[in-house]
Amino acid sequence: MKVVIVGGVAAGPKAASRIIRMMPNADITIVEKDLFLSYAGCGLPYYVSGEIKEQRELMETSAGVVRDATFFLHVKNLKVKNHTEALEIDRKNKRVHVKSVATGDKAWLHYDKLVLATGASPVIPPIPGVDKKNVFTLHGVHDAEGIKKVLAQHKAKDVVIIGGGLIGVEATEALATHGCRVTIVEMLPQILNMLDWEIARLVENYVETNGVRVMTGTKAIALENRGETDDIVTHVRTDKGDLPADIVILAIGVRPNVSLAQKAGLTIGEKTGAIQVDDHMRTSDPDIYAAGDCVECIDRLTGQPCYVPLGSTANKQGRVAAVNICGGNEVFPGVLGSSICKVFDYCAARTGLTERAAKDLGYELITAMVPGVDRAHYMPKSKILLMKIVADKNTGRLLGVQVTGPGEGAKRVDVAATAITAGMTLDQLAHLDLSYAPPYASAMDNLITAANVARNKRDGFMIGIPAEAVQRKIQNGEDFVFLDVRTPNEYEQVHLPKSTLIPLGALRRRLSEIPRDKEVITYCAISLRGYEASLILRAAGFTDVKVLDGGIAMWPFDREIP
Amino acid sequence: MKVVIVGGVAAGPKAASRIIRMMPNADITIVEKDLFLSYAGCGLPYYVSGEIKEQRELMETSAGVVRDATFFLHVKNLKVKNHTEALEIDRKNKRVHVKSVATGDKAWLHYDKLVLATGASPVIPPIPGVDKKNVFTLHGVHDAEGIKKVLAQHKAKDVVIIGGGLIGVEATEALATHGCRVTIVEMLPQILNMLDWEIARLVENYVETNGVRVMTGTKAIALENRGETDDIVTHVRTDKGDLPADIVILAIGVRPNVSLAQKAGLTIGEKTGAIQVDDHMRTSDPDIYAAGDCVECIDRLTGQPCYVPLGSTANKQGRVAAVNICGGNEVFPGVLGSSICKVFDYCAARTGLTERAAKDLGYELITAMVPGVDRAHYMPKSKILLMKIVADKNTGRLLGVQVTGPGEGAKRVDVAATAITAGMTLDQLAHLDLSYAPPYASAMDNLITAANVARNKRDGFMIGIPAEAVQRKIQNGEDFVFLDVRTPNEYEQVHLPKSTLIPLGALRRRLSEIPRDKEVITYCAISLRGYEASLILRAAGFTDVKVLDGGIAMWPFDREIP
What we know:
Two copies of one chain form a homodimer.
Chain A: E1 2-6, H1 11-22, E2 27-31, H2 44-49, H3 69-76, E3 79-81, E4 84-90, E5 95-100, E6 106-110, E7 113-116, E8 120-122, E9 135-136, H4 141-152, E10 158-162, H5 166-177, E11 181-185, H6 197-209, E12 213-215, E13 220-224, E14 235-238, E15 241-244, E16 247-250, E17 254-256, H7 259-263, E18 288-290, E19 297-298, E20 305-306, H8 311-325, E21 339-343, E22 346-352, H9 355-360, E23 365-373, E24 384-392, E25 398-405, H10 409-421, H11 426-430, H12 446-458, E26 464-465, H13 467-475, E27 481-484, H14 488-493, E28 499-501, H15 504-507, E29 520-523, H16 528-539, E30 545-548
C-alpha cells in the first residue's frame, strides 16, 4: 500500500504514524513544502514571549528528539520530502506532482491513498503596506523569529495587532511581556468573537488593566511609513485615528489551503471554503482523505458545517483518516467549537453555542451569569471564575458554557463540553459527581452552581436582568431602584452607578425605605445575596423585582470607585 | 409549614436555605449540638498546616460574613438552636425532643417535615490510649486547635497518623509542613484505598520522597506512655515495631451518626450502616428526610448502596430534600465515588470503579496506564500526570479513571466523571472536543490519549503487561528480554532492573541482537516509544512481544539509578 501525505505539521504526521502502526509495511511519503516538520505552531506566542527559550523545543517530541526527516525515517519508518511542494493531483492515474523548492526538480509520486493535510494560511488584509519588513503574521517559525529579531534590536515600543481573535490575544500577552505598548485593532464590536459580547468585554476590561489598548469597531486602513526608510511601517492608519507602530502583527484569522484540492476537482464546502469530507474524513474522491486545518467540520450541536481549525481536532482527524485508510471503520463525530486562550492571568474559553449563535438558530434560551471562586473560598489560592451558561428553555439541554477570569476555567469548559456531547440537561449537570476537595473545587462546583442558577431562573425563583439592559435604563434616566445589598464596607470600595445600599442582613427591617411602585433591581458581588434579597422583597409583596445577572463581578461597564 | 433540621454543618443549612427561598414563610429551626455552625470541615487540614490563617475563615461566607445564629436569623430568616442536642424523635406526634448542652433545659419541637443531617463521627479504634491528651482526630474545629496548640509548644517532632485514607493523607501534608517527622500507619496493603494498589503505591513512593514514612499492612496495637506524665502518648506500638509519637492522629475513617434515626425506627442500610433514603432523600418515614454524611448513596454505575461521605454530595442532597419538602419533584441520582485529595504537590483522585472493584463485580476489563504531560510538553510549566483508565471490554464503556502526579488531575477526573455518568464508551471519549491551547492541554489531551491506548489494547495493536507481573518475573528469575528503547543518555540516568538498551531509532537495524525465542517486554519513559518498538518487533516476526503498562513513569517498584 502506497500512501502519500501532503502536509507535515499536525494531521499529516499523525495520520502517517497511525498508518505505519496499523500497517507496518505500508510505503508512506510525507510531502511538506516547508523545511520544518511537525513543529508546534500553537506554541509560537510562547516562543515570542520568551516562555519557551529555544526554537528547537517546538520541534521536539516530549522525549527531546527533534522531529526531522531522519527521525521520521529511523524511528517511524516514514519517508519525508520536506521543502517540497505538491503542485497537482492526477486523480485518474492516482499520482501527485511534486517540486523541490531548493532545486526545482519535479517528480510524480504514486499513491493508493492520498491524505491532504495542507493546513491553513493567515489571512492578509487587502490594505497598503502589509508587505513591509516589520509586518508579521504569527503562523510559522520564521514569523516568530522575525518578531524576536525586531524585539532584540530594542526597536519595538509600539505594537499594533490587527485582529483580536485567539491568535491576536495570545500575541498581545507575548508582546506585552517584552514591555511593548500593545494596541489591538478589531473591526468587530468585540474581541474574541467566539464569546458573547459581555464576556469578551470582561476580557477587554482586564487586558486594558494590563496596559493594553483595545480598539473595537475599528478598521485598519493602511500601514504607513512616515520615517526615513520606506521599507518599514511607522504608523497604522485606522478609521479612528493613527497609531504609531514599531511592529504590526496581522491576526485576522486563517483560511484553509484548498488550491490543490480545488484544482483536482474535490468538493469544497460552500459556507466554509474548506475541503468537504464525510465522517470518515474522505473527500469527494474515495481514495483521497483530508484532515486538519484544511477541512470543514460538522458542529455536533447544529449539524451544520463549520470551520474551527485547531491542533486538537487535526490530530483526531489524522487518526480517523488513518484508521479508515487501513480498512477500519472510525467516525469523526464533529466538534463543539471548544476554544480557549490564556491572556496574562485570565483564561477565556467557550464550548458549544454562545447566546448569540443559539438565538440565531432560533432557540428559546435560559442563560445565567455565574461568578464564583474556583475552589473553596477560604483557600488562599482561590480565584474568581466568571461563567456564562446557555441552555435550551424547552428541553433544559445544556447548549454552551463560556468562562473567563483568573480561576481554573479549562476544567469547567471541558466538563461542559463532555456534558453537551452527552446531551445533558441542566438537571443532569447539577447532579454530576465532580471531584471535591478544598484545593480543587468548592463543595458546589462552579458548573453545578451555574446549573442551579439557570434552574432557578427556569422555575421562576430568580428573575434576572442582563447588565446591558440595566445600563440602558441608567443611560435613559429611567426611574428604578438599583439595590446593592452588600455591606457598607464593600459598597464604599466599589459600587454600580445610581445604586442604593441596604445590606442584606438589614433588608427585612428596612423594607419601608423601598418604594413599592417601582421596579427594583438587586445586586451584590456575585448576585447570590442579590438573589436572596429579591426573594425577601417578593415575599414582602414587591411585584417587580429582578436580579442583576452576574453581579458586580460580571458588570462589563464602568463602576463607581469613590 | 414547620420544618426542623437536625444538623447545622453542610446538608442541614443547605436544606434550610433552599426551603426558605422556595417558601419564604416557612418556620424553620436548625438544631446543632456544637457551638459552631456551618464550618468548613474539609478545610481543617489547611488550617492545621497554616495555609488558612484564621479559624474565622472556616466559618465565613465567601463575602466574609460569619455564619452564626445571628447571620442565619437576619440574613436567612432561619432559627438556629446551636449547642443543642436532639435526643429523640416522636414520629407519632411529629416532634423532636431537644436539650440545651449548656443549661440542660429540654423542649419538644414540632415539625411538619424533619430533616436529619446528623453527619458522621470519626471511628476511634478499640486500642488502649486513644483517650490521651495528644491523640486527635481531624473532624472538628477543636481537633484542629488541639493539634495547633501542641505544635505551637514546639513539642511535636514525631507524628503518627493512624489510617492512610483521604483525611490521613491530607493531615500528613499539614503536619509535614510544620517540620514534623510523619509516619502513616495503615492496616491495609496500601494507603488511599479508593485507588488501585499500583496507583496508591505511586503516591506512597512520592510522599516518602517528601520525608514521610509509610507503613502499610501495619496494625497499631496500643498508644503507650513511656515518659513521666501518664496523660500523653509517647509511643505507638504496632505489629511491626514501636514508633515515637508526640502527636497521634486517628484517621481511620468516619461512621454515619444514625442513633437518633435508629431509635426512631427508621430504616438503616444493612451494608453501609447509614440511613436509607429513596431518590427523593426521604427516609422510611415520608415526613422525615435525611441528607449528607449520615445517609447511604446509590452508586450510579452499580446501582448498589455505598457510603461516600463528602461535602459536595451533602450540599446536593440538602437541596434535593428541600425541593421535595416544598412540593417539588427532584431526584438525587447517586454518586460515582469521585474523590480527590492533594498531598504536597501531587493530586490523587478517582472517579467510577477501580480495576479491583470492577473485577469484583464480574466485569471483563480493558485497562490502560497512561502517563503524560498535562499541557503542551514544550510549555515550561507542564507537569506529568499519571492516569489509569478502566473500561468494560464487552461494551467499551468507560468505568473508571484514576490519576496522580503533579499534573492537573482534577480536570481529567471531572471530565471522566461526566463521561461515565453519560455512559460514554472509549470511542466517544476519544472524540470529545476538549478545549486546547498549550497552557492548558496537549493537542491530544491525557484522557483522549488514554482512551486511544485502551482502544489500541482492545484492538490488539498493543499487548500490555502490568508492572506487577514484570516484577514477579524478575523476582522469579524468569528468562525474558526487558527492552528499554530510550536514548543511552536517558538509560544512564535511570532504568529498570534487568533491562537491555536498544534505542528506538536503532531498533530496526539491531533486531538480530534480540533472541526470537524469548518473550520481549518493551518500555520507555511513558511506553509510547515502547509501543512503537513492540510494533516494529511484531512486524519483524517476533511473536511474544508485550509493552510495560505505563512505562518507567508508572513503575511502582525500585528503579536502578547507577
